[in-house]
């Protein structure tokens, strides 16, 4: 097979397939851990084949040493250090650090926005509260 970038539509399909595989890995982890690890392997193979970077959403969900799928509270430990998220894989003990400056900035921005809206009055706060309620219901 030729090397280099594939057409956009092909990359999009590959991305979708990776997404599906990781979602399945997430589903199967508690019941069939070996299956979920196989899904991770398949997703990695697709990414390798199409020469694409795994999206950050998924790349922090598996161990980069033993390639097990990780779920917080089940087979990985998450700690916050100064400016990074430290993810420890409990399968092999590998430690993965992800800097979270971006998230930190985002949170600071949201805080400022919240303060601004709370100053505007009670009515707006009620709207915000309702919005949260709707989101909760949706998540269920
Ligand atoms: Zn590991």
From TrEMBL:
Function summary: Part of ribonuclease P, a protein complex that generates mature tRNA molecules by cleaving their 5'-ends.
Biological process, per Gene Ontology: tRNA 5'-leader removal
Subcellular location: Cytoplasm
Record keyword Nuclease present: yes
Enzyme Commission number(s): 3.1.26.5
Source species, domain of life: Archaea
Claim: Metal-binding is one of the keywords in the record: yes
GO annotation, cellular component aspect: cytoplasm; ribonuclease P complex
GO MF, one example: ribonuclease P activity
Listed name of the protein: Ribonuclease P protein component 4
Keywords: Cytoplasm, Endonuclease, Hydrolase, Metal-binding, Nuclease, tRNA processing, Zinc
Database matches in InterPro entries: RNP4, Rpr2/Snm1/Rpp21
UniProt binding sites for Zn(2+): 63, 66, 89, 92
Organism of this sequence: Methanobacterium spitsbergense
Recorded catalytic activity of this chain's protein: Endonucleolytic cleavage of RNA, removing 5'-extranucleotides from tRNA precursor
Family: Belongs to the eukaryotic/archaeal RNase P protein component 4 family.
